[in-house]
Amino acid sequence: MQDMEIECCESLEVHEDLLKIVNDTMPEENELYDLAELFKVFGDSTRIRILFVLFETEVCVCDLAQALNMTQSAISHQLRILKQNKLVKNRREGKSIFYSLADDHVRTIIAQGREHLTEE
């Protein structure tokens, strides 16, 4: 429990030079909001499972539903969220719609998250 305690300064001393650096480099509020919204998308294990399937290959909703033992409706709902956040893209082939990762950034974000989890 002691490792979880947050240590605080013993006296109030504001370091103006450090605050200037922070203020000069802090992104705009709307960018911070968008970034927080993006990370919320990664906060759902079903969406993470879908992304892991898409790491391997492009698949249609039917394949995803079968692979994850879920309904097509549930998969479609999650894919809509992933697509709205530019994490997946789709293409039509005949009567099928195939989904894939939007770009390699998605793979990088997940890989860095996994790496962080295994750090000591």
Q: What would you say the CATH architecture is? A: Orthogonal Bundle
Quaternary state of this entry equals single chain
**Structural category:** mainly alpha
Shape: elongated
* CATH superfamily (homologous) name: Winged helix-like DNA-binding domain superfamily/Winged helix DNA-binding domain
What does this structure look like?
The chain has helices spanning 16-25, 29-41, 45-56, 61-68, 72-84, 104-118; strands at 59-60, 88-93, 96-101. It is mainly alpha-helical. The protein has one domain (28-118): Arc Repressor Mutant, subunit A. Strands 1-3-2 form a three-stranded antiparallel beta sheet. A hairpin with a 2-residue loop joins strand 2 and strand 3 (96-101). The protein starts with 15 loop residues before the first helix and ends with a helix. The mean pLDDT is 94.
